[in-house]
Each structure stands twice: as C-alpha cells, then as structure tokens.
Amino acid sequence: MAITFYDLCGRDERLRFSPYCWRVRMTLAHKGMPYTTVPWRFLEKDALAFANYDKVPVLTDGDVVVTDSFEIMRYLDDAYPDKPVLGDSVSCQRAHFFKLYVERSVTPVLFRIVALDLLAAIHPDDHAYFRETREARFGMRLEDVHNPEQGRSQLKQLLAPVRDQLRASTFLDGEAPSGADYLLFGSMMWAYVVSLEPLVDTNDPVDEWFKQMLNVHNSVAGKAITIRDL
Question: How far is CA 168 from the centre of its chain?
C-alpha cells in the first residue's frame, strides 16, 4: 500500500525540520520503504482533520491513519516487521524511556540554542502562532529563551551518558543505527537544519556519531535541504 507522510515545512517548502518527522523519515529509510510526503505548516490544521489530529507527523498507509512519531515507529515495526527499529516489547519499553529523556531533557535545551534561528526558518505566516505557543511553553520571550552558549553547556552535561555509550559502540543501538539513534538524531537534525550554531565540540563522540548519521541509509539526512543551502 502507498504510504503518505505529512511533514512540517519551513519558509521554503523544501526545508523540513521537525524532530518528530525526522524520526519517521529515518525509520522509513531504515526499512527501505518508499513513501510520498505532503508539506504542512503550523496553521494548516484543517489539512489534518481526517486524522483527528492537529500536528505532524501523520502517516497514512492505505486506509490506516497513524499519528504521533513513536506510534508511527511502532506501527511500521508491526506492519512491516523486517528490519525492526524498536524490537520486542522489552526493547520498545526501553526505547520509550529514551524517547522521554530526549523530549523532556535534550530537545528543550536544543531549543535554547536555536530558538531565534528556528523562528527565522519557519514561514512568515506562522511567526505569530509559533511565538505565542512557544513563549507560553517557556514562560518568557523567545529572545530570552535564545541563549546558545548556555544551551551548549547544558547539552554537554545532558549528553554525558550518550557520549559514554558512543565510546563503546558506533551507534547507540550497536554497530548499526536503530530506534534510539533515530530518537536522538531527530532532535539534533531539527537544530542542524535551521541553524549554523554548533551543538557539540568537534572532538566529541556525539559529533562523530551525528556525522555518521547524516550518511546512513544513502545519506537521506545528509542530502536534506538546510539553511546552508538557501
């Protein structure tokens, strides 16, 4: 069946930066599955009415509609068990724990590094919505949230266990990338797509891992349009 993937886009329709959509994109690449994307912007809520959902990613597989990035990863493993990314129930639970760590710890710190760059990357029609919702979330103006130096310092501490893991294996899930890699990579790719700010030191194992992630699966991420190309 034909898979369609609704994916957040920026001021240029080719600019795809959502951390959650990147999880799905990497999962589809991992499984070698063809798909088509539908670009979507923050205020286009009506376009997702069929899914009873108001944000992306949304994936359709024939008549099946799946929302939420982690649920999409689980669905793809269940429906297409070849080349799993989350594994059995125990492995999936561990991946879910790592998902929570990324979303609640790493992603907010990344936002501090790229907040104003992200605002500049989205479509002008979405600026007011983006500012209002993100400032309500952080309880301050975006200009006060944006602090790249402080964000990098916090990120360095948060990634200490990731750094140690990468000293023991090429990827977080071993010698080949899988679910945990895609969960963290999605958030780091989000920052990389919209900003020129360095995220980690060049001699950091996380930096080497990120560069390798850009090249896996026929460089699906490395070939993506970023602000460097606009």
Answer: 24
| Long-range contacts, stretch 107-110, CB < 8 angstroms, 24+ apart | 107/19, 107/187, 107/190, 109/151, 109/154, 109/155, 109/158, 110/151, 110/155, 110/187, 110/188, 110/190, 110/191, 110/199
Q: Rounded CA gap, 198 and 188, in Å?
A: 11
pLDDT tens across 95-127, in order? 999 999 999 999 999 999 999 999 999 999 999
pTM for this predicted structure: 0.97
Tell me the backbone φ, ψ of residue 51, rounded to 5 degrees: -95, -5
Tokens of 46: 């009506």
Q: Please name the helix (run of DSSP H) or strand (run of DSSP E) that holds residue 38, with its range, or none.
A: strand 36-40
Q: Residue 108: name the closest of 165, 54, 162, 154 by CA.
A: 154
Task: Say how far apart CA 178 and CA 50 lie, in whole Å.
Answer: 30
Q: Which two tokens stand for residue 205?
A: 């194992």
Residues 6+ away with beta carbon under 8 Å from 177? 26, 30, 171, 185, 212, 213, 216
Q: Residue 161: what are its φ and ψ, rounded to 5°?
A: -65, -35
Pair 115, 145: CB distance under 8 Å: yes
pLDDT tens for each residue of 173-226? 999 999 999 999 999 999 999 999 999 999 999 999 999 999 999 999 999 999
